[in-house]
Write a structure and sequence with these properties.
- α4 packs antiparallel against α5 and α4 crosses α7.
- This protein has one domain: Glutaredoxin (3-Layer(aba) Sandwich).
- The N terminus is likely disordered.
- It is of the alpha+beta class.
- It is built from 9 helices and 9 strands.
- The protein is globular and about 50 Å long.
- The two termini are 27 Å apart.
Length: 265
């Protein structure tokens, strides 16, 4: 259920350099304390008691900094997507990644893929809805986790690679649940390192993987697959190819899943 996902890359990393440990990067990374669709320095969308108070303007997601567009400069318009007549949601195909972290039977009637990241507040709340969804449908649902770190969330790339280091040791979901906990405070370098220790990772192996960008290529593959599937922000969820944009809430996810199950032959 949790297969190792290992890859290597020598590409220039978007994350700050690590000179053997995560701790020295803390002063630089903490500059990303507030961000939004405008890039670094813009205010994050507010979250009220229901976690959705400012979703009208954001769609419940952080917009991705996708090439050739940049923050504040929209990318060229794309053709209108094909809509599913049953759910009226856009249809898209996500390239498979068998080694990605997943839960549930691979042949389940509900195939759910989420592109998300660890520093987006909407993603952290959406993770709780997906946990409930997996429990609700049990062996009728297969959930696949894909990474989509946003450029202006400076810790998101490090966290993505760290989670794949945990995945390589069979502890992705333990690591994921702690980092995604919306009550656990802001994402920091110290939290990432502490979480690695809490779930019982080999810290020497873990820090070496981060220093050497061992899993950077795997994250880049997820980003490329996400862009190909028209991901424009986080979270982006695909339920049997139906694209659900933003944090829509558990009830809406159940509504979509039930409709698909009822229509299945």
């Amino acid at each position: 259920m949790r297969n190792p996902h290992a890859a290597r890359s020598t590409r220039p990393s978007r994350r700050p350099a690590v000179d053997g440990r995560l701790a020295p990067v803390l002063p630089l990374l903490l500059l990303a304390a507030a961000c939004g669709p405008g890039g670094p320095g813009a205010a994050e969308p507010g979250l009220g008691a229901d976690g959705r108070s400012d979703l009208a303007g954001t769609g419940g997601r952080f917009d991705g900094d996708l090439l050739p567009g940049r923050p504040g400069r929209p990318a060229p318009p794309r053709p209108a997507p094909e809509l599913d007549p049953l759910t009226e949601l856009p249809l898209a195909t996500v390239a498979p990644c068998p080694s990605a972290p997943s839960l549930g039977p691979a042949d389940a009637p509900l195939q759910v893929v989420v592109f998300t990241e660890f520093q987006c507040p909407f993603c952290r709340r959406h993770a709780g809805d997906l946990d409930r969804l997996a429990e609700h449908y049990a062996d009728r649902l297969h959930l696949v986790f894909r990474h989509f770190p946003l450029r202006y969330h400076d810790l998101s790339q490090v966290a993505a690679e760290a989670s794949l280091a945990a995945h390589a040791e069979g502890k992705f979901w333990e690591f994921h649940d702690r980092l995604m906990d919306p009550e656990a405070g802001d994402l920091t370098v110290e939290r990432i390192r502490r979480t690695a220790a809490e779930v019982g990772l080999d810290l020497g192996r873990f820090e070496t993987a981060i220093r050497n960008a061992t899993f950077a290529a795997a994250v880049e593959r997820d980003l490329a697959d996400g862009r190909a599937a028209e991901v424009e922000g986080t979270p982006a969820t695909y339920i049997n190819r139906r694209q659900v944009t933003g944090m829509v809430g558990f009830e809406r996810l159940v509504e979509i899943c039930d409709r698909l199950l009822e229509a299945a032959p």
